[in-house]
Every structure is written in C-alpha cells, then in structure tokens.
Amino acid sequence: MVRETLADYFGFEEHGTNLETEILAGATTFLTMSYIIVVNPSILSIAITPEGVSPDRVFQMLSVITILAAAVAMFVMAFYANRPIGLAPGMGLNAFFLTVVLSPALGISWQTALAAVFVEGILFMILTAVGLRETIINLFPEPVKYGVGAGIGLFLAIIGLQFMRISAADTTNITSLNPVLAQDPVAVVSLLGVFLTLALYARGMRGSIIIGIIATAIGGYVASALGVVPYSGQLPEPITLYQTTGGLAPGIDQITYDAAAYDITPIAGGFIEGFQQVDIVTFSFVVFTFFFVDFFDTAGTLTGLGQAAGFLDEDGEFPEMEKPLMADAVGTTAGGILGTSTVTAFIESSTGIEEGGRTGMTALVVAVLFLLTLPVVPLLAVIPDFAPYVALVVVALLMFQNVTDIQWDDVTHSIPAGLTIAIMPLTHSIANGIAAGMISYPIVKAAKGEASDVHIAQWIMAGAFVVYYVVRTNTLA
Predict the structure, then answer these.
(1) Looking at the domain assignment, is residue 89 inside a domain?
(2) Which of 209, 235, 457, 476 is the most exposed place for a label (fewest CB within 10 A)?
C-alpha cells in the first residue's frame, strides 16, 4: 500500500524509476553531501560567536542548525518540486558569510549577516513566486547552459582529488600531483577506491558509488589496523596537502552525547537582533552580494543537474524550474531564522541522479537521513573524511559528456562555453563561471556581426555582472 502511494504521488512510472532506485539514489546523495554537517559549523563557528557559549557548544549547535535547515529545504523539494535534488547550507556561500562578518571594511555582526540571509530568502521567495527567477535563468545563452555541466564536473574533480590527497596545491594555489603519493596511504586508499568505483560502474553494478565510498572507508580502517599512518613528513616547497581531520581510521573513544548540544536558542533568531544594528547602505550591499552569488550559483547548479538528469527541454530550459527554486528560497529563509548561511542546491546531487534518482522521493530520502543523524551526530566522526570524495571524482568524469552539445566550430559558442567551463574550477565558483560566459556571449556575438541574436536582457545581465564585480572588488577588504 505504501509503495503504491509513493509511486503514485512522486510519479515513478512517469519518470522511469522505482522505489528501490530512489532510495539508493537518496542514500548516495546523502553520503556525498553529509560532510556539510561537519564542515559548515567548522566554518561558521569562526564568525558566529554567541556571548557566553563555548566554541565546542557553538559547533554542536551549528551542526544541528545545518541539519534542520537542510531538511526544511529538501521537504519542499520533495513534496512541492518533486525533483531529486539535495539542498543544504552551501560551501563557498558559508565561506563568503565568514568573509563578510570578518571584513573590517564592512564591520557588521554575525546577527546582521543572518538578517541579510533572511532578507535574501524573502526576496527569492517573492521573485520565484512571480516567475522572475526562472525568466532570468532561461535567458542564459545556450553555450553557457551547455558549459555549466562540464564546468561543475571540473570543479568537483578538483575538490575531490585535493581532499583525497591525490593532488596537491602550492602557496600560489597551483594544483599538481601529490609528490609523495606512493608514501601517502590516504592517497593510495582513495585512488584504489576511485578505480574500484569506476570498474563497478563500467560493469553496470547498481549502487556502485555507495559501494565505492564504503569500500574506501573500510580500506582506511584496514590500513590503520596494519599500522599504516598518514604521511606527515616534509614536502617540497611550496607544496601543501589537505589534512584529514580523523586520519585513516577515526576513533570512537571520544564520542559523547550531551542534550545541551541541541539547544540552539543562543543562535536561532539572532537575525532579529541583526536588524537593530543595520547601517542601511552596508546592509543593502551585503544583501545584494548574498543575493547575487546565490542566484547564479543555484541557477548554474540546477541547470547542470537538470542536464545530467535529462530534465531540460529541446530549448535547453528546465521545465517548472520555479519549484526547485522555491525550495532553495524557503531553505534560505529558514536558514537565516535558524542561524546559518544561505541554503542552496548541492552539485553532489549529481551522484544520486547518476544512480537513477529522478523524483522528489530521492530528496525525501536525503532529508530523512539528515534528520536521522541528529541523535548520532558524534558518530559521523568514525567515517574517514576522504572517503565520500570518491563519488565526486567519479561523477565529475561522467559530467564531461555534456560538452558534446557545444558547437566547438562556432566561436560564438566555443568562447562563452569554454570560459564558463574554465572559470568555474579556476576560481572555485559556479557564479564566476556563469559571469564569464554571460559577459563574453554578447561581445563575441556582436564581433561576429550577429548582435541581432542577442536579447536586450542578455546585454543588461552582462552589464550587471560587470558592475557587480567592479563594486565588489573595490569594496570588500
């Protein structure tokens, strides 16, 4: 009975899926984005500092807030939008929140920053309700839309390879191969996990990505049991490696439960106080900045995910995009109220889509799994933090196939698409990649004598991007 009800509500037959596939897809997405439960509070706790509360308590509260905000957004995604997309406080957006709070040029409190997130969410809800967000996104030039998927893929690959210590970075942020890869068990175990996952996927095995993540985690424990420890020797200058917080096999001896960790009142509702500290000019700039970054970050992510899932129509547009956009808007508003940075669609949702997730049931599974972590948040520490990144590299490789839709022999396609693809990973920002494509498109079109093909709104959007970056890069310090 329950199976039939879910199948009818989410339209399994219409979307060519079934309950087992959706559950597997949801579990896969959860495994690849659950890191945010730990990473988001580790970033925000630097900026959000309620008086009289210890840093450890703040971290725990923010973990709970992260879970709740993500669940709210994903319930809307599941029951209203019916799309297989996970949402949570976004990476990059939380770092930007931190930058804004710590910027001496702005001088605003964390409460005021939360107020800005809340206002941003309300604006998104209004614009989404009247269809303006979808209209703007549908104005994206075709080559930019086609380039988004591959750009996100490269972005994912860089993140995954670095956090698995397969690649390294130097002080100028140049990426290279880990110079001690063969001596670094984290890199070796991760590399084996990637190839195992790719082999399973190539054989068509269902759940290959989950199996790869679990196998990589087990490999870490096996290596630890054999007495292997992560490489900690000297590296050639100026090479640096990401540090794994729990090593190869995080222990469970320090896991403790404390009900006080679930009392989020010192943070929740802080946005109300933030409105009392507002300087209207500075506040308006912060709201616009949050709004701008999230708008185009979400637009790029949804376009890329829609392409991966086969949702885009013959014009390259995402049908009923206003529904997943509303989930993003509601999540952001709830996040501002609870006490976290902007909630957005996660590119890691591509892992669940790759496993066959096509409906809101996938998002519902992710939401439920997020909530189930509430009583066991401390246990997340026993999963090696490098293991989930196996999925990012595998999915990144699969997302490159979208570049075949780009007309590479036409410079009015290849230049905007190429810039979109390249700028995303090189600047670690989906929004920056879209901006590069949007600015270049009308320029190369006009240069080719095809200015009549450019919609006036596309010229306006390109100009808006230029003005935004001029203002932003002359204001933030």
Answers:
(1) yes
(2) 457
Residue % of the chain over a pLDDT of 90: 44
| 258: number of Cβ within 10 Å | 11
| Cβ contact 49:266 at 8 Å | no
Contacts (Cβ under 8 Å, ≥6 apart) of 341: 40, 44, 89, 90, 93, 94, 96, 97, 113, 117, 335
Give the range with max mean pLDDT: 2-6, 66-70, 372-376, 465-469: 66-70
Bridge-partner residues for 88, per DSSP?
344
Query: What whole-number distance in Å separates Cα of residue 455 and Cα of residue 228?
Result: 60
Give the containing element (helix H, strand E) for 168.
strand 167-170
**For the segment 154-183, what is each residue's pLDDT rounded down to a tens digit?**
887 887 898 899 988 776 667 888 888 999
Average pLDDT in the 226-242 region? 78
Question: Does 217 map to a domain?
Answer: yes
What whole-number distance in Å separates Cα of residue 449 and Cα of residue 464?
A: 23
Tokens coding 9: 């509500």
Of the pLDDT bands very low, low, confident and very high (cuts 50, 70, 90), residue 379 is low
**Is 41 inside any structural domain?**
yes
Helix (H) or strand (E) holding 167: strand 167-170
Instruction: For residue 132, tell me if it sits in a domain.
Output: yes
- Among residues 160, 412, 146, the alpha carbon closest in space to that of 300 is found at 146
Number of domains in the chain: 1
The single residue listed with the structure tokens 């020797």 is: 233
- Please provide the size of the chain in residues: 477
Question: Residue 304 burial by CB count (10 A; 0-12/13-18/19+): exposed, middle or buried?
Answer: buried
Q: Is pLDDT above 80 for 289?
A: no
Residue matched to tokens 């026993």 = 382
d(CA 97, CA 89): 11
The reported pTM is 0.73
Alpha helix segments (H runs only) across 389-455: 389-399, 411-427, 430-447
User: Is the distance from CB of 416 to CB of 437 less than 8 angstroms?
Assistant: yes
Domain extent, residue 208, equals 2-249+283-399+406-473
Other Cβ atoms within 10 Å of 330 Cβ, number: 22
pLDDT confidence of residue 108: 87
Please classify residue 173 by burial: count the beta carbons closer than 10 Å to its beta carbon, then call 0-12 exposed, 13-18 middle and 19+ buried.
exposed
